[in-house]
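Researcher: Good morning. I'm working through a list of sequences from a screen, and I'd like to move beyond sequence-only analysis. For each chain I'm collecting a predicted structure so we can compare shapes side by side. This is the next one on the list. No need for commentary yet; just the structure.
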Amino acid sequence: MKKTFLLPLALTVSLLGSLPLQAQNIAPAPVLEVMQRVADWQLAHPVTATNRPATGWVQAAGDAGFMALAGISGTAKYRDAMVALGETNGWQLGPRFYDADDHCIGQTWAELYFLSSDPKRIAPLRERFDAILAKPSLVTSLEFVQREDRKTRENWSWCDSLFMGPPAWVRLYAATGDKAYLDFAVKNWWRTTEFLYDKKEHLFFRDSTYFKKTEANGKKIFWSRGNGWVIGGLVRVLQYLPTNHPDRPRFEQLFKDMSAKILTCQQPDGLWRASLLDPGSYPLKETSGSGFYTYALAWGINQGLLDRAPYEPAVRKAWAALAACVEPDGKLTHVQPIGADPKNFAPESTEAYGVGAFLLAGSEVYRMAVLEIAKASVVKITNPAKFWRESETVEVALKEVSISGETQPAAWAVMDGLSSRILDAQVYSQKTNALADSLLFQVTLAPGETRTFYVLSAAALAAVPPPLVKTLARFVPERFDDFAWESDRIAFRAYGQALIKAEGTISSGADVWVKKDRGLIVDTMYRTKHYHEDNGSFMDDYRCGKSRGCGGLGIWDGQKLLVSSNWKHWKLITTGPIRSEFELTYDTWDAGNGRTVSETKRFSIDAGSWLTKVQSTLASDDRSPLTIGVGFAERACPTNREEFIAHDLAEGWMAYWQPEDQPKGITAVAVILPKGAVKEFTNDDPGMPESKKRAAVPQPTHEGYPAIRNQLAILQVNPGQPFTYYLGASWDRSGDFTHHGAWEDYVKRFAQRRDQPLQVTVHP
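Model: Good morning. Structure tokens for this chain:
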């Protein structure tokens, strides 16, 4: 019998350097293992020196690598460590207003924002960059002179700054859709490039003081880590530069030109030396610059920008050499210190930025290994609209996906096309207890942009990152048969039969629970029974009562609304990280003229949304069309309060900015119906005098103002045929919508998204 012996990873890596290149196979598991060992060592040995502040560039470059690892690791501890860092430091940048070094940490804050969409994570970054846009530096020259006032560093006047600054600016653009941040990054990237880039050598001078300096061999001085900062920064700009941006070809050409030159500078052991053009004068191994080069070249191969034939052997050799510089306990060695003589430094030296470069390199080598064995399907997503789309759900039919002939692997995964990050994904079927028929994940796209993603079997991965669960739906027997559901933005509940016996409350409308943070609150609300007081994060201040609440419906006879009782039966379809979906059925009720109807409602809420999709099917023995009213409760509005009701007949939406229940803030609601379906907007008490509406109303003691009537959209539907609409709500104290115009703009834009769906193309 043939026996197989497994060598320790460190020994395996050291042997790889002496093997023929074609034998240097890289598998996902050992790549991830050595990355995690290096990261664990760094976490266990935090830098406490006063010249290494937590928000400074040394640590920030390391954090960039930690975020890359968090995107592929099977444990949440690296992501949690970065979140804890942000919380501890208040999501602040470094203190120097213009200095790019103190902006670098913003890359991590922005990437953590992408995971949660929590505005606090980018608030200081946005405040700083807005202030820079409003008051640019008065220094116009890029000439670099070391002096105490550091005015020379108010612009991107040294090549390292292209890693520190521009990637933070483009990430803030990706977080907000505000093109001003992108324009600033692109303009100033090229300004610095025109100044420091040697078009003949295809390398960057460190700064203007090096223009006329030469090495011992007479060649120009181009520092390895300096150019590593540049090409690493170039990758990190391209990751978030829209794929249809007019300058993208220019950025890609710069990347190709630099890569070609860097390839020629690689040394026989797989690493690069501190000086690119005079390696003989700098014999020591150096892993920080080498890490950035490995990262960039591997990324270029994965993007199809670099020819695999010459570059992949170089990447494999470089990764083997880098991994050989990792000690058994995980310490990364041979990192050139800051400001030290690059010809003489201790082999055991390490720095956080070296760890960051190593982890970034590993993330792209890992992706190379995964895609080599995964045989993934390529999914292209296009935004056909002229507006920004953030955290929008993509639904890919699994019958269109083929992974080595396997159409139902045990688990699916989705990899981002521009980075190695494994996205949160969810298998989904509209039918309960059925095989999944589609895969859900979310994307953010610029106007007109097309992005690429990979769908693959999770078996190809070394680990599956734990998802961030952002939706929930469940039956709540512990509280009068409620059925509750929520996204990371808003929460709702619908009343069951037990509430009729307990309180006599009858309504098929949706009740609203508001929240400030992006966490899930339903279970906490029911467990603590802390409902009606603002505890700083969430509360129940929306009084549904017997009204239509938020998005309830009924049969409209021209004067009054005939409504059902509370729901009778429930069925959970799915509850997951991206979408939660369930079904409620309502027993027959009197629809007038001797006719009865019943209703089945399918509710679906996605991560990142304040709106719930509702698919309603009315059943009746009489098959003639039914006139229905869909709407929300209108509140009494004392004279010292404001309310705003807006609607659009053609687009089929109406929104309500309610009068404030002091001191609890404002709850806003909305409904969006099929385009062109609404016949009119009305209410079920059109003769109500203004004096009654404005009558003195006692300040609510524990919940919102009572309803005085229902605002309604009137339309016709056919029995047995489902129609789809949306109901939603928000709270001004969350900070997302602070005035009625912002809420109405969101509702308008949601209707536009409905009318211009994302275009999905799958290439097996």
